[in-house]
Amino acid sequence: MEETVLIAGLGLIGGSLALNIKEIENVHIIGYDANKSTLDYSMMNGIVDETYEDFSQAVRRADICILAAPVSITVDLIYQLDQIDLEKELLVSDVGSVKSQIMKAAEDLTSDKITFIGGHPMAGSHKRGIQAAKAHLFENAIYVLSPTKKSTSAQLEKLKALLSPTKCKFLVLDSEEHDEMTSVISHFPHLIASSLVHQARNWQTKHPYIPKLAAGGFRDITRIASSNPLMWRDIFFQNKEKMSHLLSDWIEEMQQLKTMIDTGEKQQIQLYLEQAKDYRDGLDSKKKGAMLSYYDVYVDIFDQPGALLKVVEILAEHDISINNIEILEIREGITGVLRLSFQNKNDQQLSHAILKKNKYETMIEE
Ligand SMILES: NC(=O)c1ccc[n+]([C@@H]2O[C@H](COP(=O)([O-])OP(=O)(O)OC[C@H]3O[C@@H](n4cnc5c(N)ncnc54)[C@H](O)[C@@H]3O)[C@@H](O)[C@H]2O)c1
Ligand SMILES: O=C(O)C(=O)C[C@]1(C(=O)O)C=C[C@@H](O)C=C1
């Protein structure tokens, strides 16, 4: 029997989910978004089968609904759901980066037809909007699911089955532990990235040449500062207490570092850096599995037209598919570094050998 899945909020995440759910047979995908041109784009590009400009009408059609709007709007949409006169059962999930207020709204639902299970794919990008949607966005990422008191294990399995084309790994967490962990590993780092950009910008009045010196290091650590400010404002305030707590800890730690620098405690600083390096290196360790990572090959390329294409073509000729390509650093007329990510060690080793044979300077981390 065909099931109708509604995605409400067809941006980067909603659009990417739609592209995955499309792969399932007997699913009719309908889209709702506040932005008419987003709806038009998603129809024109076959991302959804049908669109609605009215939330209630779309909801009445659906068997499953995924709310993929910014977090505070998701809370509003949950309260709106409760006002809709439903004819059939509705399983609802969301993708919000902060869970507590969303889960509170979900637990407040009074409709006996609605069951809610919170969701959050731990993958994304600094890009926004339906144009940035990608089917492979969630591959190998953790997808957090937060059941409510009312939801059953059968409904949890049903949601997992719907999301299975994303190739995510599911992890069940309650909203409190989710929000604490994501504040540390996602939300607070974002604030720090933006603060580093501000620092550089302030120094630019004295040294106008500063942006030209921004090489791989600054670009790597500040990439996420290019994300959607409205979305992040929403996240920070929905997780306000945890952000404030982390800021206090951070300020205290920076004070300690300042003392170490001012008083010349070289050993202490070295230890601080060594401990950070050990932990960071461990994150990418395939053996430990602390974070799901790809198998990377670093390739030096020259800044010439077609240089990137050539590398891709060589690997394609050997039927090797690349999971992700990132240009880590490239300056006009000089060499740059490509990071090619592969799904498994075999593809990584093979690509390394093939590119070497083709006279490329390549490197892999063992
Ligand atoms: N960007 C990421 O890296 C990321 C990762 C995981 C989860 N999330 C979460 O996913 C959600 C969406 O983020 P995104 O990155 O896709 O943002 P986005 O800006 O790309 O998309 C948001 C979409 O919601 C629509 N929208 C806004 N107000 C609406 C309303 N009232 N009704 C219906 N639609 C509305 C917008 O028009 C837009 O199409 C957020 O809750 C965010 O916390 C984001
Ligand atoms: O890769 C990025 O650009 C992201 O910021 C993705 C990211 C994160 O890793 O913090 C951002 C917000 C989400 O809720 C989940 C993932």
Present as ligands are:
nicotinamide-adenine-dinucleotide, prephenic acid
CATH class of the largest domain, named: Alpha Beta
Strand order of the largest sheet: 3-2-1-4-5-6-7-8
Structural class: alpha/beta
Enzyme class: oxidoreductase
Protein name: Prephenate dehydrogenase
Pathway: Amino-acid biosynthesis; L-tyrosine biosynthesis; (4-hydroxyphenyl)pyruvate from prephenate (NAD(+) route): step 1/1
EC number: 1.3.1.12
Question: Any overview of this molecule?
Answer:
Helix content is 47%, strand content 18%. The chain has 366 residues and is an alpha/beta fold. The chain folds into three domains: 3-173, NAD(P)-binding Rossmann-like Domain (Rossmann fold), CATH 3.40.50; 177-262, Orthogonal Bundle (6-phosphogluconate dehydrogenase C-terminal fold); 295-363, VC0802-like (2-Layer Sandwich). Helix 4 (71-81) packs parallel to helix 5 (100-107) and helix 7 (175-203) packs across helix 11 (240-262). Mean pLDDT is 93; it is low at 287-292. Bound molecules: nicotinamide-adenine-dinucleotide (NAD) and prephenic acid (PRE). Nicotinamide-adenine-dinucleotide is lined by residues 8-14, 33-35, 38, 68-71, 73-74, 95-97, 120-121, 124-125, 128-129, 228, 231, 235.
